[in-house]
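Margin note from the TA: students keep mixing up input and output lines. Inputs are the sequences; the output is the structure of the whole complex. Example:
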Amino acid sequence: MNRNQIEDLLIRVRDGKLDIDAAIKHLTDLPFKDLGFAKIDNHREIRTGYPEVIFGQGKTPFQIREIVEFLLSRGNNILATRVTPEMFDEVRKISSTAVFHEAARCITIRMREPVYPDTSIAVVTAGTSDLPVAEEAVVTAEILDNKVTKIVDVGVAGIHRLFDKIDEIRKARVVIVIAGMEGALPSVVGGLVDKPVIAVPTSVGYGANFGGITALLGMLTSCASGISVVNIDNGFGAAYLASIINKL
Amino acid sequence: MNRNQIEDLLIRVRDGKLDIDAAIKHLTDLPFKDLGFAKIDNHREIRTGYPEVIFGQGKTPFQIREIVEFLLSRGNNILATRVTPEMFDEVRKISSTAVFHEAARCITIRMREPVYPDTSIAVVTAGTSDLPVAEEAVVTAEILDNKVTKIVDVGVAGIHRLFDKIDEIRKARVVIVIAGMEGALPSVVGGLVDKPVIAVPTSVGYGANFGGITALLGMLTSCASGISVVNIDNGFGAAYLASIINKL
Amino acid sequence: MNRNQIEDLLIRVRDGKLDIDAAIKHLTDLPFKDLGFAKIDNHREIRTGYPEVIFGQGKTPFQIREIVEFLLSRGNNILATRVTPEMFDEVRKISSTAVFHEAARCITIRMREPVYPDTSIAVVTAGTSDLPVAEEAVVTAEILDNKVTKIVDVGVAGIHRLFDKIDEIRKARVVIVIAGMEGALPSVVGGLVDKPVIAVPTSVGYGANFGGITALLGMLTSCASGISVVNIDNGFGAAYLASIINKL
Amino acid sequence: MNRNQIEDLLIRVRDGKLDIDAAIKHLTDLPFKDLGFAKIDNHREIRTGYPEVIFGQGKTPFQIREIVEFLLSRGNNILATRVTPEMFDEVRKISSTAVFHEAARCITIRMREPVYPDTSIAVVTAGTSDLPVAEEAVVTAEILDNKVTKIVDVGVAGIHRLFDKIDEIRKARVVIVIAGMEGALPSVVGGLVDKPVIAVPTSVGYGANFGGITALLGMLTSCASGISVVNIDNGFGAAYLASIINKL
Amino acid sequence: MNRNQIEDLLIRVRDGKLDIDAAIKHLTDLPFKDLGFAKIDNHREIRTGYPEVIFGQGKTPFQIREIVEFLLSRGNNILATRVTPEMFDEVRKISSTAVFHEAARCITIRMREPVYPDTSIAVVTAGTSDLPVAEEAVVTAEILDNKVTKIVDVGVAGIHRLFDKIDEIRKARVVIVIAGMEGALPSVVGGLVDKPVIAVPTSVGYGANFGGITALLGMLTSCASGISVVNIDNGFGAAYLASIINKL
Amino acid sequence: MNRNQIEDLLIRVRDGKLDIDAAIKHLTDLPFKDLGFAKIDNHREIRTGYPEVIFGQGKTPFQIREIVEFLLSRGNNILATRVTPEMFDEVRKISSTAVFHEAARCITIRMREPVYPDTSIAVVTAGTSDLPVAEEAVVTAEILDNKVTKIVDVGVAGIHRLFDKIDEIRKARVVIVIAGMEGALPSVVGGLVDKPVIAVPTSVGYGANFGGITALLGMLTSCASGISVVNIDNGFGAAYLASIINKL
Amino acid sequence: MNRNQIEDLLIRVRDGKLDIDAAIKHLTDLPFKDLGFAKIDNHREIRTGYPEVIFGQGKTPFQIREIVEFLLSRGNNILATRVTPEMFDEVRKISSTAVFHEAARCITIRMREPVYPDTSIAVVTAGTSDLPVAEEAVVTAEILDNKVTKIVDVGVAGIHRLFDKIDEIRKARVVIVIAGMEGALPSVVGGLVDKPVIAVPTSVGYGANFGGITALLGMLTSCASGISVVNIDNGFGAAYLASIINKL
Amino acid sequence: MNRNQIEDLLIRVRDGKLDIDAAIKHLTDLPFKDLGFAKIDNHREIRTGYPEVIFGQGKTPFQIREIVEFLLSRGNNILATRVTPEMFDEVRKISSTAVFHEAARCITIRMREPVYPDTSIAVVTAGTSDLPVAEEAVVTAEILDNKVTKIVDVGVAGIHRLFDKIDEIRKARVVIVIAGMEGALPSVVGGLVDKPVIAVPTSVGYGANFGGITALLGMLTSCASGISVVNIDNGFGAAYLASIINKL
């Protein structure tokens, strides 16, 4: 509640247009729905421009369904990430239009027609094995009403593959670059484009890759500028941020 | 050299306005200047929208001066980061308008009048000790022709200080949040704004802070969305990216 | 055995009221029961105010049952943590009133009526996925005869949910705050209450969370004061300590 | 501002006893003082029971003096931790009663007569080299109006030294145990007392001690219950928490 | 082959008592048996006082059997560590007297009557969960012809249990102390005995125990003297070394 | 496409042997084949001397088959590493001569008769448990047309086994040394040969071995010269590099 | 105080030969001297066979002198490790026979004529740079009345240097092996001798040596048996343990 | 000493051409010179093709001089790495032709005229700050009689600089690639050349670079083949290995 809203409310109290109890209720009203095991954030869309997204890991299928059910009742598009097939089975009981994106491990339910901005998001991967993370990014970007260009397997060990696609990448308004192993691709892309680059390290690799840590550290210490980094395998987070930037 | 420039060049060849030797020279000319110890990237501004920035660490004062001299000869604004007073002494020999930002450890020389976009960048710090990193971000954002709002010491342990400033933060187009210790501030800010948040961990703290690693990891695993992270103490990198976003 | 007890004993020896063998036995008597694979600490309750708690991990179901049987024979309440269903099956053979707390992975058997202090313990979680650790804390606090208030899913990314509950949290005498991912919640709570805050990092998260290390380090380097930390996922340890403080 | 205060304020607005501007001011008034480089938290004492403490590391001597000056103007006791002699020189310019605790690296200024609770805090160290951290704890506990018992050099390698002092330790209401190297002392103390134990790892040691990490991890994984841990060398944090517990 | 043996051989060559081919054979003879996938070290017992021990991990059951078969053919006692039941099934095919120690994950076959030294080895554990590692140590020490005293569950959180057993521990010639969690027991034992203490960290614990690293580091940085450390869970290595010391 | 090829092409255009359209096609033709999920690098053999190798991990069996099928169509030898039996089942559908190397987890298909250089590669392992990594190296070296000498189980704890084989090792042109645990073998070999030594750490071991990190670090800090290191368990990478050196 | 001593004391109380106060004093008498900042362990020699050793790091020169003075008053040999020249200056004020071992950073004062056992300790180093740690070991072993053989610079990269000295090493009763970098020497020595090997990692090296961690981990995971490890650079600890073993 | 040499020697003994004492001397002769603090490896050049190189770190200037003096007496070229100016001052006392390479921190003395192979070594750096490591590599390669091509500042953030130099790089027989920060350059080079690539991580960078660890790990997990890695900042080791390969 901002200053203007407080002033309006106080004027209405002074002028007798709003009684004390109603005013208290407004000043203290819950901007979230309490489901017992979770508090759904109703004001989130107003506050951050996006509805609540469900992080599936560590929740029970029943909890997922309950949260989806409540969000659907408010007319929201649904995005649940890091979900299991069991969770999808539960969700399907209450929504016949729910879609399970297997590689991306996401559930989406579209409730509103998308209104796309003119610009697009590029999702670029270094290798074929990075595809599941790319899928999570694509699913997220699309349910958030963005157009997406996907460019796969252009890692630095065969760098001419990247150069062939660089004009396509440059057309996007924001670029997500996904890479495992040494995570060098964002550095090269960052030196070639004039758009924000969001780097996503993946856990693809073995040995000294340490489940993605090496790629993560490499991206953080990139010699190129204009790059920022999200958590390992966090395709969702990259796309969520890209969507914010794409709609600025 | 982009496609249009190649087309122009070929047309001029066809029309006899450019002879073959000159055309070959243009087509093969080095897009960088070789100083022996460094290769200055002349095409960088065309390619990424920004001129070369000088990373001072590990270079000698003499090398810094040589690079500055060359860049000045091309009319560029100068930004050198991670510099020492000795480096500034060298630079001052060739530029009387060079400015040394002591806390930020930066040198700037402005060669062109700034043209500001309408929107601004917010630079927010958790504590007073994070100020040097904030200064590096502010200096960078300003030399790149951005308006900056600085908000200091609004860390989560006294969270009402943040709430007092949140409307001001929300007015920016992109928000840089700088925090050491546990690095929790970006998570809270990320839940309150609908703009991209660039998180900068600082090495402020001791013990289990591990020189900023704890803040870095905390920001990467933030429970809020819309956040990405740059290297520890990398105020420059955050501001460079923020500038790209601010001018999209 | 303290100084006064030694003096009493010596006087009784001098006065012939206690013979040498009995005195030796007293001075050397075992304050524990040796089961071969374990030594049950009989004097623990006298020494630390609490009976022995069974740490299930790494023990066999048979060993668990043997220890429970001995403790029951002395009239103790039973708490076994980190247990498996197989362990519970063994325990049920000797106690029909044993309760298996599945989410908390605990077994409890209540042998004495609880005598509650007036004050209570608040158990606060950042997310729904932190619930199993919260359950371990709640089960522990209750079997140790404390009243508990549980507040779930008030993480910092939607911080108004916390503010709605802050008065309820302030009513407790000691506050347990449980959080995974970046573990920022204790810092915010610590800045808002005047009670001891025990922070419990959880292994909820992925990638740079490193199984709870990031939350752990974040809590240790918290910018708020009045916070201390226990091991990752250690709901039991937090509640045990909270119980000591609640009964001071 | 809590519910009752809001109700009172609204009633006064309705009844014409408070005009709109004053009401807005109350509802939005800053509970902190902005010094430009820092925001002093005026409501902190009301909110958490303790005035602001100054964390010296990373601040300039001038900044320290400015903050001290403001806090003195409000009649607060002063505690500044992690300070340098240069900082003290600045502070002494504005306060002749300022005390510099060299080993503890603290500045204190006492403005109010202490009112001690009956109970006390025990500060126990494993070795002589842990003394500076113990001093920080003692200085903190005393400026926060607590009686302190200090017991030095009772580490586990000569455990009879601990047993000689155990009765003295048991008399305290809360026990701070400070240890470097392997950090085993809190485990032993925790098994011998029925009071909360706050463990402080120190950076004393070399090699595989890793600047205190080993002691920190050892304390977190202690086999004893009733123990919680603060950051490496954080004598202040331990004493602050102990003071809260001592005054419950 | 030492200097004296070389001299003898040369004299016999000079004196015509040994022909050149035989001399070459002696000087180059293989002191191991090559099984293709492994080279059995025949001279090991001469060189180090002990026959080859089989490290089962990473070998196939067939390989284990082949190695056992060869060693049996030379009349050696057999000890195979880190074995699986499948390996034992293979070994039983060629030896009816093979024994499978399930908790210790060892196979032993005794081929020679033991000749015990007068002195003994004490194997001490902090908790019940450390028993499997203790069993590996006991099995190893016994097949190497040592008498063993086993003392279980005397961890530092109930330190009177240790004091009750300390005289028994002091009777041994060398003491193996096995502990997980914070690994504090060797420090306490090291301060109480005048014998070599071999510390074995175990992977018992969770969270900040990091699979035994915390116990390992704690033991390495022990404040007590006279302690050395072997690898995590390495009951075999501790007993092997203890046996060498016991027979000095 | 290299300079000579461009010159040839231009001469053919000049001489009328190649029409303009075909020349444009050649000059702009993609040097890779896009399969949608992967881009096969056709020019790789020209550029680096070796055809594309398939890294199986993280790919689906279907993807593996598609890539194999395309590479076969161009007459290449096939090497796929880190494959599963399921992947081999797919590949066998399109190639009856495909071979599955179980221990090495590789698939090979030979399409061209090998032409061996005179010199050979030595593959040396410290223990029997390192054999799977050695097999990956042997399979790789052989499909790349090299002769290989394999020497097994000559680790440093029985160093005479190594000395017996050292002349055989010295005959190779390049030496691959594979070791787990402390990874000391390359240091000893490096001090005994005058050939390049490629060290491969393996994940064989437990506890403080940390899945091969200890061997990796040991090899990197070797006190011997002439050694370089590849990733943990990377038998393929070592053999690939050895093959390049063997054919220089 | 053991059982027999208690029995004697009780009999004397019963028989009136010892009055109550004296008996209490005996039962509670301090077995240490409290210097305020340190508690000197008087019973240590009785309990562990060795007098107190002074660990200099983190103590003040004044504290060192006070402790030395007290220990001298009891006729003990003095060993202080990790000392500075300033500490020695203080000690020389009270003892003209104090010796400062510069490379070893030790002070020794000999008060009793040494009685050497027949057997000796071998101190072996991999390189010249490991000498300071070796000196600490030698000084410690000698003040504890052991004969020492020192063998320097026999690292594994030139392994024939070791073989030349191996007979000399084998003559010792216990072998200390000191190595930095990859720390491979103990593995080789352990495979060649039938005596206990105490491995000391040193911080000699750079980069991936990580201040001795790599050598430490390598020694812990050694493929040879009969090896145990002490802390990085802990020449004192190795020699103290070696002395215990040498005198068994 | 190999088999043939042994046979020759034995025949000469049998035939009375060599007496027993001389034969023993030959069979046991020291292939190194013992300077007390170091053992100079005389046979090293025969065994590995290269004379002893002096690793300066951790040695005293006097020790350096002694070793240099001995090596000079045998007519060797001298290379000392990681030296200080103080060490050079000592060396200059005995050799007027000694050269101090300041950036490289090396001393060289050339005693023999170089005989260069036809092929050369390329030394490539990502940035200007990597120059000191490159200098160490160049100095090493040249004293070992190799021709060197140095290419500086071609890091991946401005990748056209690399492409401009790639033909020059391809002309070398072996390529050393030196990079700090994320260490991506070797991956790109490895995909463009058909020669062995030796990657050298440098400690250039800050924050998440961790003193070169990030670059090291990135190189180890490179997605390109044909790459191996040496220790952080180890320009010497890379050049030594490159020299071996260059002369195969």
